[in-house]
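Thread: quick sanity check before group meeting

JM: Hey all, I'm pulling together slides for Thursday and realized we never actually wrote out the predicted structure for the chain we discussed last week. Dropping the sequence here so it's in one place. If anyone has concerns about the input, flag it before I start.
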Amino acid sequence: MRNEQKGITDNIPLSGNQANRWQIYGDSPEKRRRLQRRTLLIVVLAQILGGAGLAAGVTIGGLLAQQMLGTDSFAGVPSALFTLGSAAAALLIGRMSQRFGRRMGLAAGFMAGGIGAVGAVLAAVLPNIPLLFVSLFIYGAGTASNLQARYAGTDLAKPNERAKAISVILTSTTFGAVAGPNLVDAMGRFAASLGVPPLAGPFLLAAVAFLFAGVVLLAFLRPDPFLVAKALAQDKLADKQFVTGGEQPRANDNRKIAVGATVMILTHVVMVAIMTMTPIHMQHHGHGLGEVGLVIGVHIAAMYLPSLITGILVDKWGRTVMAYASGVTLLLSGLMAAWVPADSMALLMIALALLGLGWNFGLISGTAIIVDATAAATRAKTQGSIDVLIALTGASGGALSGMVVANSSYAMLSLAGGIMSLLLIPVVIWSRRRPSARQRNERVSMGS
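JM (edit): ok, ran it. Output follows.
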């Protein structure tokens, strides 16, 4: 039993001075609340910057590759590289955060993303295709940090306030994500004035935004919320105190982890698949780029803007109810996208807004389930691994969506996505089944 206990608590070495210094947050709930508010403020500021860097680069990456290659055959390569880079970085950031805290993990990811953006600018100036592809892969680290930052707000949050903390961080990302694409033209003109290809301009913005986001976290995310939460959890375990009132579990609840991961993965796959093919579907039916941009803009707004309300609902009504709501909302989106007339802008907007809203419900409820189900000793590493799966399955969903449409239709893709989202319901029902006596005994022995 001693070895099992050691395995739960030894992932982050804490000195005696650190443990004593951070114990004040366990002794004083008010100090802990103030640290939580400060943590949210710092992470929100970093997310606004990170959102600008992410959106500006992603908006123009395909066009830059198309210009440098002289063909549109590989215009989808930047998206694939972003995704693969994000997946690899998510794993590394999760493990780094587990060992050294959120501050070091997230800052390293943002700074790597900034270096990747600088490399993309240099590749455009030289020009150098291999450098561009390597830089875009590294740039994906900024994407990973931008997504994993949502966990930082939950480390010190009360169990009934975790979803709200997640939603605050997601909402703040919207500001940067909206500003980034709107600065594309201005950054293009600025780049041209420096003798840099205009399409590299947004990557200048991304470099500055990602690097500043990293600096903000590195300089101000002190004390590290994850390390504080880890110290408090270690202290409780050392004192053999039982967790009550929905506090962090002593050992991971693998059943709930599987459910939280499934909720996020399914909603992400469905969202990416339908979203990826909607612009092509619209263009095939005579819609211009302006109309396509408007529909996708509404979709992105629906992905992030409702977050504050969603977080409150997840905390008030429960993770399960909102996971059900995610599946039903995505089903409605798939049915609408499949059956509405292709020339109806208003109905397509509603369908894509529902798609974004269903994703929002799934991401926040799934994230809250993961936080509830993981012990501090392994939480960050587990979260990073799950985000790897989200990124990879999302990329697969985007790639397979083109094959589905090519061999059938956009309507079939949308129907398949809507029906797939209903798998969330039996998965969540399974999670609510009482564990067997053997499973309960195993869980107690792990936590004792």
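AS: nice. Residues 302 and 357 are 5 Å apart (CA to CA). The two ends are 8 Å apart (CA to CA).
JM: adding both to the slides.
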